[in-house]
Amino acid sequence: MELDWLKRWKLYSPNNIAIKDGETGREFSYAKLFDLANRGAHLLHKEFGICKGDRVAVLATNELEYVFLFFALQRLGAIMVPVNFRLTQREVDHIMTDSSPKLILFQEPYREIVENLPKTVNPAKLLLQGENSFATKLETTKASEYKFNVQETDPVMILYTSGTTGSPKGAILTYKMLFWNSINTTFRLNISQSDCTVIFLPFFHTGGWNVLTTPFIHRGAKVVFLKKFDAEQILSLSEQEKATIMFGVPTTMDMMARSAIFEKTNLQSVRYAIVGGEPMPIELIKVWDKKGIPIRQGYGLTEFGPNVFSLNEEDALRKIGSIGFPNFYIEAKVVDNDGRELGDDEVGELVLRGPMCMQGYWHNEKATQETIKEGWLYTGDLVRRDSEGYFYVVGRKKDMFISGGENVYPPEVEQILRKHPQVLEAAVIGVPDDKWGEVGKAFVVAGNTSLTADELHNHCLQNLAKFKIPKHFVFLPSLPKGDSGKILKRKLAETTA
Known about the structure:
single chain; alpha/beta; Rossmann fold; GMP Synthetase, Chain A, domain 3; 16 helices; 27% strand; globular
């Protein structure tokens, strides 16, 4: 298994562009990226003593220097710990205490957080960019090749989950995991050296690194980075760079489709868009299909993959809501609470097995054992498989609620709500009820301020069993979302407390 990807592409296609900054236009070939990775390895080892197994934390937006650092650390066998720059001091303190980095690279806006870490955490500190920074030091560091000395089972990165059920846990990603995720992605998306994509998800998120970035670099393709989501900028860059694959979640795809420049943007180079996070509404799929861009619905998670399922684009309308089939080197089962495999159209937990499974949670053996059992990773997601073998996400195991003894899966209700012509977004959670135990509470973003709860109730009445219909409807100007565009239901639950 070849792990030194940059060295190979320096040999095969040294002048091909590997990475580009979508805002400044700076770009680097595979030969130059290999050179910078070696410079970075020499710098980090000589000046900061970084060795194999050391953790190096990063508190920064998407910058090309972040990518230089990622590949420099690989040559050392050190472990990168990307930190969400939107977190509070308390939340950053937890990650730093848990991972114990030897060095932290940061941007100036986050200096105060870095300087106020607990005294028990005392890493060396280095600016990512600016005067006397990682960026400037690279220029004066020797460029001789630094021996690449890692094994496939070595950790390459610790990514901290969002912590929806408590303190964030650090998922340990290995070189083996990145390699097989790339192989699966390549097989299902037909990635080649001539491909190009625009990435906007942040680097503290697995989507920023592993949905397309690492598979593209493994294949010698081109990646254009943005610091944040901007609908018009992504559309413009996709046209200018002749992007071949786009990526988003339903929210970002909707925002791009509503952009003032959507109709006039030439996206003929795009083969398809891959969409994850949640099922994409059929009307939105049709909007993109009319633009000539088929939608490939998918599914993944930080702890496995993350590219786990993919729906062939020709099935986008026929199998609306499906995540398709497991990718090439993945086994998937639907099981009940006792781990017994279920049959077609029975709802149970999705469990996965394959070489792209995380190694475990950093310093959290209890959580690791609860998640990985006898080689199978328990996702916490409820799914069903139809008679043709297509999988559908029904909801999170923890999101399901029981109303009058009946199981209610919020995504089904949300999909019906979104079919109302005046509903832009919808999210449903279970709340306590004296009579039924739990009932649904729907949070709705309406396109028309005259929309009423009675109208929505009647709409649901025509499409859902009575026990599934939300008892409460709340209208909001927007729904809280995470960095990947997913709706944060825990935030909605907090508003009902």
